[in-house]
Design goal:
- Helix content is 49%, strand content 15%.
- With 380 residues, the protein is α/β, with parallel strands linked by helices.
- The protein has three domains: 176 residues, no CATH class; 42 residues, no CATH class; 111 residues, Glutaredoxin.
- It has a five-stranded mixed beta sheet, with helices on both faces. Strands 2-1-3 form a three-stranded antiparallel beta sheet, with no helix packed on it.
- Strand 5, helix 11 and strand 6 form a beta-alpha-beta unit.
- Helix 2 runs antiparallel to helix 3, helix 2 packs across helix 4 and helix 4 packs across helix 5.
- It starts with a helix and ends with a helix.
Length: 380
């Protein structure tokens, strides 16, 4: 039995640490996934006021949960305070199993975000994974009093503190400087127009045309292949026609709904992305405030002008954003939906250098010193 408990500890601990580290690479992505859950629950009538309020603190929840996941995994591996952490792990895995189970059974989510965007897995796979983990943790919980620490108390405390500091530092770093591993469709080297196309070999949705009629006060539904034998317009009264999904396909582009429009609502997506020269895109979400990026822009903008690189400000709030560019007259503002901006810009704002629609590089506002050097070197 001892070997089984040890095996369970190692598997559970490693999985929790791995899962936490993958999500720590992009805590904002997990926050967006949390907001998606809160929105669905609010629309379903689950205390809408509370769900909307919690959505405002999604990033805080994300950072805390990721840090705890890593620390809990480390604690299980070293066998530290197992009476406490066995309870915490059990509560955490029950919560995770509920989330993945809801995502799978409701059919409202393509992914639960368990391993971030770097390792996308289906809700069904996530749910099965959490069921297995739940069994392992139940085993650990049952025998928690028999588990002895692998290290002296001081050594265990040092490792736990290091895991806390590292998990918080890593998340702070990527929130300020972009993810270490970029697994998003807007990553360096990708061609945006190509990623906006449905990939070859993708399977489209399978649908069938369904008709809804009313007969004798009751609603009757059937397809074009099985009309009732007694069908007659005097008996059946048309209600609606719709495409009923039979099998969900995967015919979706990696980049969806990325539409760039001028301030006069003219679609200019293809025109801008097909420019063979260098262009700079500055993605700004909502109102980033008059912070560090404004000072950085003052030194970056003259370099873009010198290199004859057009600067496009892509934002969902052009009216508010334009106030920050009074000293940069040769700027083109483009409107875009906030959802693709959230995917493209994990820091607010984020700078892109593109050529013919291909992402040459991208930088957080905190790294525009590097951007200045690279832009001059690349263009020269």
């Amino acid at each position: 039995m001892k070997s089984i408990i040890t095996f369970s500890r190692y598997i559970a601990g490693i999985l929790f640490i791995f899962s936490g580290l993958v999500k720590a690479n992009d805590p904002l992505g997990l926050a967006y996934k949390m907001q998606e859950f809160f929105e669905v629950w609010a629309q379903s009538g689950w205390v809408p006021g509370l769900m909307h309020a919690m959505s405002d603190y999604a990033l805080t929840f994300s950072v805390i949960m990721i840090a705890f996941e890593i620390v809990a995994g480390v604690a299980v591996l070293v066998g530290w305070k197992m009476r406490l952490f066995s309870w915490l792990l059990l509560l955490l895995i029950i919560f995770f199993t509920f989330l993945t189970g809801y995502a799978y059974l409701s059919g409202k989510f393509r992914s639960c975000g368990c391993f971030g965007d770097c390792i996308p897995i289906t809700p069904k796979t996530s749910f099965i994974k959490d069921i297995v983990l739940l069994l392992l943790i139940l085993l650990i919980f049952t025998w928690r009093n028999k588990i002895k620490p692998a290290l002296p108390s001081f050594g265990s405390i040092c490792i736990i503190l290091l895991s806390v500091v590292f998990s918080i530092w890593l998340q702070w770093h990527v929130l300020k400087h972009l993810p270490v591993a970029d697994c998003l469709p807007f990553k360096k080297g990708n061609n945006i127009p190509e990623k906006m196309k449905i990939p070859p070999g993708a399977v489209p949705d399978s649908t069938v045309i369904s008709f809804v009629y009313e007969k004798d006060g009751a609603t009757v539904e059937f397809t074009s292949d099985n009309f009732p034998d007694d069908f007659d317009d005097s008996i059946y009264h048309f209600v609606k026609r719709y495409d009923k999904l039979i099998r969900k396909g995967n015919a979706e582009p990696a980049i969806k709904d990325f539409v760039l429009t001028t301030l006069h609502d003219n679609d200019t997506t293809i025109q801008v992305l097909s420019d063979p020269g260098y262009n700079a895109f500055l993605f700004i979400k909502d109102d980033p405030g008059n912070g560090e990026w404004v000072q950085n822009l003052e030194s970056l903008y003259p370099i873009l002008q010198q290199q004859k690189i057009n600067l496009f400000v892509v934002t969902n709030n052009a009216a508010q954003t334009s106030t920050y560019f009074n000293a940069a007259p040769r700027v083109t503002f483009l409107k875009c939906d906030v959802v693709p901006i959230k995917t493209a810009a994990r820091t607010n704002p984020t700078l892109y250098l593109l050529k013919n629609g291909t992402i040459i590089n991208k930088w957080s506002y905190a790294d525009w010193d590097d951007a200045e050097e690279e832009i001059q070197a690349l263009v020269n």
